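Exam revision sheet. Question 4 asks you to relate a sequence to its structure. Input first:
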Amino acid sequence: MTRTVLITGATSGFGAASVRRFTNAGWRVIATGRRADRLQMLVDELGADKVHAAHFDIRDEAAMDAALAEVPEAFRDIDLLINNAGLALGTAPAQSASLDDWRTMIDTNVTSLVTLTHRLLPALIARKGAIINISSIAGSYPYPGGNTYGGTKAFVTQFSLGLRSDLHGTGVRVTSIEPGMAETEFTLVRTHGDQQASDKLYTGAQPMTAEDIADTLYWVATLPPHLNINRLELMPVTQSFAGFQVARK
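Answer key, structure tokens:
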């Protein structure tokens, strides 16, 4: 039986790598994102029988509903939701951060995630499906400049645990994946396109790759249905926990 996964934020990074990983394993994929050209590239690469491109901004609830209503019949039986769409914006401390950036992170990482999840819960329950939410180590370990981004990811982790509790007895599995440093477009987005800052962060650090995370998502998704991974934290070997800060006079 061919299974179907809906992956948000599929135009780059973890999302695009996951589209490839799942389709190559025989799944159908609904790939969502804001950049229609990149979604079309995935369709062209992998085939329209395997990938359906759903072009919309995850923050636009009406557009989300319209896109879901237009999903072709062959892709309608969704077995897995991967809530991958998310972003960090800015590295400034809270007292000088952009409120607009904060609101964008909350709208994308929290509000949109819960909205889509709520929309798909009846179908996922009916199919005894699964939900994988992409959180971050930033939701567990604070760092300067992490402020709202870390707060949104802490929400994703706790929301996942709450879903797991609420869905007890339905057969639906829920997992929070919490990656550390991975080299994608993440830092480019966070720094509003500063390639030098991105290169500086990742050079020599041997970060994880988008493919590493895609392989992990596929592993979680294909475990026997009686097993649930509640939380999974991943870091590259070169990254570990920071020490406490001390301000001295």
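Marking note for examiners. The radius of gyration is 18 Å.
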